[in-house]
């Protein structure tokens, strides 16, 4: 169950980061509200998962899911560049998450 909570917390991190981008500097109320609600849910689930998972593992997986998810949405939704170097960097993040999971 803690891994499921951590995964959902990571997905909510992608939600709030995307909503932050769409809030246009907090000038649009609905994306700003989605961001705040997403943050609360993400942090709450991260904290709940940390009751049973090591701090370093939980935090790395949470930020990794957020980073990779935001990277993918940035490319798909906002036209961010998809270069070989950025893809390699994303691959390194995924590799780090997998190694941390295996080591934990």
Overview of this structure, please?
By secondary structure, this protein is an all-alpha fold. The chain has one domain (2-103). It has helices at residues 2-22, 29-49, 55-78, 84-103. α1 (2-22) runs antiparallel to α2, α1 runs parallel beside α3 and α3 packs antiparallel against α4 (84-103). The protein is flat, with a radius of gyration of 14 Å. The relative contact order is 0.16. The mean pLDDT is 95. One of its GO terms (molecular function) is transmembrane transporter activity. Belongs to the drug/metabolite transporter (DMT) superfamily. Small multidrug resistance (SMR) (TC 2.A.7.1) family. Gdx/SugE subfamily. It holds the Pfam family Multi_Drug_Res. Keywords: Cell membrane, Membrane, Transmembrane, Transmembrane helix, Transport.
Determine the structural class based on helices, strands and strand pairing.
Answer: mainly alpha
In terms of DSSP E residues, the strand content is under 5%
Low-confidence stretches: none
Helical stretch count? Answer: 4
Radius of gyration: 14 Å
Say how many strands there are.
Answer: 0
Please give the domain count: 1
Mean pLDDT: 95
């Amino acid at each position: 169950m803690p891994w499921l909570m951590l995964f959902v917390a990571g997905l909510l991190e992608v939600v709030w980061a995307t909503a932050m981008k769409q809030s246009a500097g907090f000038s649009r109320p609905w994306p700003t509200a989605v961001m705040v609600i997403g943050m609360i849910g993400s942090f709450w689930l991260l904290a709940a998962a940390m009751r049973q998972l090591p701090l370093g593992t939980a935090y790395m997986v949470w930020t990794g899911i957020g980073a990779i998810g935001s990277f993918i949405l940035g490319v798909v939704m906002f036209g961010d560049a998809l270069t070989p170097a950025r893809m390699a960097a994303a691959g390194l993040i995924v590799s780090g998450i997998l190694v941390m999971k295996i080591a934990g």
